[in-house]
Amino acid sequence: MIITENTLFCGDCLQIMRQIKDQSVDMIFADPPYFMQLNTPLYRPDTTRVYTVDDTWDKFGNFGHYDRFTLQWLSEAKRLLKPTGTLWVIGSYHNVFRLGYWLQTLGFWILNDVIWHKTNPMPNFKGTRFSNAHETLIWCAKEKGARYTFNYETLKTFNDDLQMRSDWHIPICNGKERLKNKDGCRVHSTQKPLALLRRIISASTNAGDLILDPFFGTGTSGAAAKELGRRFIGIEKETDYILPACERISHLTPLPNIQETITEQKPIPRISFGMLLENNYVKPGDILTDKKHHHHARVLADGSVQINRLKLSIHKMAARCQNSLSESANGWIYWHVMKNGTLCPLDELRCRLREKLFPEKETDSFFVENTDELP
Ligand SMILES: C[S@@+](CC[C@H](N)C(=O)[O-])C[C@H]1O[C@@H](n2cnc3c(N)ncnc32)[C@H](O)[C@@H]1O
After folding, report:
1. In the chain, what are the domain boundaries?
2. Ligand 1 center–CA 188 separation, angstroms
3. Per-residue pLDDT at 123
4. 31 lines ligand 1 (CB under 6 A)
5. If we measure between CA atoms, which residue out of 31, 59, 62, 11 comes closest to residue 212?
6. Superfamily per CATH, domain 7-261
7. How many Å lie between the centroid of ligand 1 and the Cα of residue 31?
8. How much is the average pLDDT of 328-336?
9. Which of 3, 25, 37, 171 has the most CB atoms around its CB within 10 Å?
10. Does residue 76 or residue 325 have the better pLDDT?
């Protein structure tokens, strides 16, 4: 089957992909099931239920089943890609390592892995692990040495004339963008943000290109494709998502100017107190004090501070010292440390570290041949 126009199929992607002509798509974006293996419901401390991915489409018998499925759809993806085409696949720690293994086994050539850093992640409610604040995208060419589309200049312009990096700071899909049903519940548990798909599509396709998404869900890839003047084929097996995806896309009109519409505010990189310790701006044992020297707190190796037998974060300790009604205050401004005979606010050290770790003007390594010479 040859597909030229925007088309949405309801059915199993393996069966439908098999019917599409070889080497007919320019780019594939795939957001496959994660196989999260969540068995029990998750609750917040206030006992409200947390939205998780417990959908039947995410369930597989075991890793063997998941691997077989992955191998099958990736093999079809490889057949359908034009020689100059690229594939993007997104996953979490549950599945991304398996995806990477099968991509390389099938001869795809990995160009980058991109970290989608969620600026507003869900907390780890149980406090038993780190808050899971990112997903990984793998971007690959069909094979080693293949030519492929990369709109380097477009992305650089988008990024205030700095080379686009592989860490993308984009919020999870929320607010008006999140599709809701008539009861106000989310239509889909894993709707991706449009900003993410706009960036992927503007990076690796040209106007008029054909994009395939075998796990269409609410059609985020189709929506971004239509906005940016690309064509798409979507495949989704759950009928419940088809109508919301169609409605969403039909209401959109292509954007008049891509550059105007994909700008997002440049986030300020976050520096934690622990990072000041890791970078020796403050050392375990140092004494922090407020401007008037009323309180003195000793820095501990785990990033907390201690006064008498009380051990807290810099923010909670600042609140205590100021008899604040709230649990936490701004420890960056409150606490100071002696540096070369003068009292220096932690906030100043934080700014210095940020400038060091995330310099405003970065060396354009695209043109640098010997990177060993860089500081
Ligand atoms: C992670 S979600 C994709 C979400 C989508 N990117 C969005 O922004 O809404 C995976 C989707 O793949 C669909 N799916 C799972 N297995 C499938 C299969 N064999 N064929 C087609 N769709 C499938 C699920 O129903 C689910 O909607």
Report:
1. 7-261, 273-357
2. 10
3. 84
4. yes
5. 31
6. Vaccinia Virus protein VP39 (3.40.50.150)
7. 7
8. 93
9. 25
10. 76
